[in-house]
């Protein structure tokens, strides 16, 4: 095993590690100038912004092939800001002791085991902790669902009475009704849901378990799902989840009131790129365990799942269209868990419920063929003899409020078929009316779709699914006439209005007398008329028993989150469909093309963030040998609205490794300490580690007015442009006094870099601490890191520090920096507080 290397991530302004002593004859001038800008400098200000620690770490994480341990600044999962503080090569079970320097303001830091493939297993620990072990303190709650199949699901039945069109299906069917060629129902009725026209969602249904379903052995049926209570989350587990999600999927609101945009690493993850955000069942039980519900809307959400055999997808059908017609099964009633979570803050992590995902067999919407009762003409009886021959007729006009009555056509009339009807009886007085000439069904929109004052119209449509949901109810009046009721409430009946246009209306009551009576006159002279023998309709759903507790191995499993701030029970179907906060979001991005463009809410993720038409709304990834699903239910892209843990191993195929390197450092100089403006950009250097014995030093900016040399580099030249004792303007190829990469309106020039060989034990901190600048415009004055209590005319900052723009003091650019200068104990994470208009974006942050 090689020697332990300590790569200290260090935000330090220090003289103690320098090898050169700097003497300033004009110290009073320097002090007076600094006090004008900073006020009094704390005499104890040693400019150290790190906290040192030593910890023993045991490599006992749940990884099979551990090759090293690390101390990191942050969780590495999907987090490019994570950086190494210290690392050592180890084998499984070995304990090593590491020393580290952590930036002030970072507590806890992260211990990590890393396997030979680069997978991390992390655990946060507080600075000052002396020992870290990854062994769990309690038994894993996931162990039962990882066990072999054996959960009894024999008393589970999907409820046919409660199944319904999905929100996508309802929007599609209604949009198709409106948009079929020749239909001219007012677009104001259709509104925003027109996005779903011809989108192939018609056959999607949502299912849940019946009230008579039951479970045993700790499981129960609640709100149509299978659930059990599990052990609460441990303190260690909560801290680990917080470390993972606070850095990557934070739910916090930024200064500009926006949220973090986390979509880029999600979009490029293996779950999206390789698996279309689907799990692959391993043939064992799969469960889902909510661990955070931070969204204010989550109480209005339900989670559904679906599954399919990849071999069953027809070769002539897209995967998206195949999934659209699959049944979706309710698995988490989010409000039930939210209410019972026991957390005081919605951002807190918890573990309360585990939900099972049974297998109900492979099925989709079935159709049935029904035959008509006969061929008829349908005459309105009317109040006077003049109206006795007015028949319901297709007048080549589908408008909602158009004429639909005409005198009897002669048998040889070219349009006779437009006055002929087939009646399809569905039972319980339900009937469908089919016009033979138009080849369309006749129906009323119903109060579920239009405002009450507009609900008297009817129309001809080609959507049998819609017609079946909106049948007429026909009853015999006992006098040879019939009533045609709008719906099963039988309070509104189809009739002819009193206007000359004889428009069919549905606002008539039985008190209107014979105006609402109809005679069905059989018609037999049908030679030469194209009359269908039957019609295909969606079959009535049937109860379906659970088949197994395990979805078959190799099946793909996906998720749908349904949000309904406007509930179906409290609104009309049209109100439910048009509600801007109602929608279904999927992991498979191709299923989100409509919802990602739905106005006023969901489209916000596209208008204000990086969401694209076919982007995922569910992030799936592995962390600490577990699979997590993180949901985006609304108008941003932070993906922290709900987080669930997957029970079982069916997400183990996601294989995103995180490459973590030692953090780059930025070193900033003032070239004239006695008259410094402290814009900290007269010379700006960057240093990164190339290998254990090689560091790359780059000159990235100069705002100097004088000829200034880079001095004090301790290391052997390897490659690149030599920087030792070189003048900074000359390195950029510009004249002295030319500003480079400090003025926002100027062109950004590329950095000038050189790789130096150093001892393996040399940290970036130590390497930079030796460097100083020589100002030949001030008689060869040398400027390096300040001593305790001196002005900060040289700074070393972690990361790609965004230094102030030309001639803007660091106290102006970073609004709390002065507080720290005046009080060494008041660090206050000052780099987080800046005026964006006064900082220069580091070229390496662009």
UniProtKB/TrEMBL annotation:
Domain DUF4842 residue range list: 790-830
Annotated Pfam families: DUF4842 (PF16130)
PROSITE patterns on file: PROKAR_LIPOPROTEIN (PS51257)
Lineage: superkingdom: Bacteria
InterPro entries: DUF4842, Ricin_B-like_lectins
Name recorded for this polypeptide: DUF4842 domain-containing protein
